[in-house]
TrEMBL record:
Keyword Lipoprotein: no
Protein name: Phosphogluconate dehydrogenase (Decarboxylating), NAD binding domain protein
Alphabetized UniProt keyword annotations: NAD, Oxidoreductase
Protein family: Belongs to the HIBADH-related family.
InterPro entries: 3-OH-isobutyrate_DH-rel_CS, 6-PGluconate_DH-like_C_sf, 6PGD_dom2, 6PGDH_NADP-bd, HIBADH-like_NADP-bd, HIBADH-related, NAD(P)-bd_dom_sf
Organism per entry: Acinetobacter radioresistens SK82
Domain 3-hydroxyisobutyrate dehydrogenase-like NAD-binding: residue ranges: 160-281
Listed Pfam families: NAD_binding_11 (PF14833), NAD_binding_2 (PF03446)
Domain 6-phosphogluconate dehydrogenase NADP-binding: 4-157
Length: 290
């Protein structure tokens, strides 16, 4: 029986994900490094802003931090309740998930890697996709808690499998983003109306999440709203490329994309959205995608 649930890390994603928990659980603890965000969450959604050491006495503990290193540092400093399930929604590193799952198991604590996809709007509308790695029986026990903010929730394999799926997904997003920038810049160089081209492509085989959402809602309207930071995409493509290398596979397209996203991240303005990666290509070509 899940009685208390905690959420650690109330960033762009976590703040919105944790907002759904009080609709399903009586006791919901929240904690954030900048604690005023936790207090604001409590006021807004009826959660309880609480000391971190108390928060980890919950039956289910969610975390959503930038990196696996942040999660590991936190976990290493805590005395977590025996019998608890820690569900890490960070887009993390598969090897870190395996290590954490193994070390926590010795203290009778279960660990699931459960990264999410669907961006802040999906977190707000509780329509996230959740890809989960870990013990299948633990997945079954944790499912009701994940259903509060997830729509498609899949157990994809042992510890680390969820993080691996997420990293490859975001690499595919990056490949799409860069190729869309090249393709639409080419069209503009040939005098084609980009909005009409976009309508055609979105009704054709070249469409993708990038052409359907990022291009119209972030790039062509020049808004680049910061909801998924470019350094986080650069981190994810790095994780994916590490997986390629660990498997000793050739993946020239993915390696090139990782370099491009890395370079775009290094040259981007601070606080850039992932979609702003196209600005590096615009600087090379002197053609603006608008
Ligand atoms: P944000 O940068 O908005 O939030 C990060 C959160 O982590 C903040 O609450 C921050 O606290 C906290 N934090 C950062 N470092 C530490 C630390 N060392 N110890 C404790 N707390 C820390 O990130 P997002 O919410 O955008 O992303 C979170 C995760 O979700 C990432 O792994 C990302 O890749 C993934 N993701 C993001 C999506 C998006 O659209 N944004 C979509 C899907 C996945 P503080 O407020 O004090 O800074």
């Amino acid at each position: 029986m899940i009685q208390t649930v905690a959420f650690i890390g109330l960033g762009a994603m976590g703040y919105r994900m944790a907002a759904h928990l009080p609709k399903h659980f009586d006791t919901v603890y929240v904690w954030n490094r900048s604690f005023e965000k936790a207090e604001q969450h409590a006021t807004e959604y009826g959660t309880q802003a609480i000391d971190l050491h108390q928060a980890v006495q919950a039956d289910i503990i969610f975390s959503c931090l930038p990196t696996s290193q942040d999660v590991k540092q936190l976990i290493d400093s805590l005395n977590i309740k025996a019998g608890a399930i820690w569900i890490d929604c960070t887009s993390g590193v598969p090897a870190a998930a395996k290590e954490l799952a193994m070390s926590l198991k010795q203290k009778d604590i279960e660990f699931l890697d459960a990264p999410v996809s669907g961006q802040t709007i999906g977190a707000e509308n509780a329509t996230l996709t959740i890809m989960v790695g870990g013990d299948a029986a633990v997945f079954d026990r944790a499912l009701p808690a994940m259903q509060t903010f997830g729509k498609l929730i899949k157990h994809v394999g042992d510890s680390g499998a969820g993080f691996a799926v997420k990293a490859v997904n975001n690499m595919l997003l990056a490949v799409n983003l860069w190729s869309v920038a090249e393709g639409f810049t080419t069209l503009k160089a040939h005098g084609v109306n980009l909005n009409q081209a976009l309508e055609c492509i979105n009704a054709s085989s070249g469409k993708s999440g990038v052409t359907e959402t990022a291009l119209p809602a972030r790039i062509l309207n020049r808004s680049f709203p910061l909801t998924f930071a470019l350094p986080l995409l650069a981190k994810d493509t790095g994780i994916a490329l590490d997986l390629v290398n660990e498997a000793k596979l050739p993946a020239p397209l993915l390696a090139l994309t990782q370099s491009l996203i890395q370079a775009a991240n290094l040259t981007a303005e601070p606080d850039s959205d992932f979609s702003a990666a196209v600005k590096m290509y615009e600087a090379w070509t002197k053609i603006i995608l608008e």
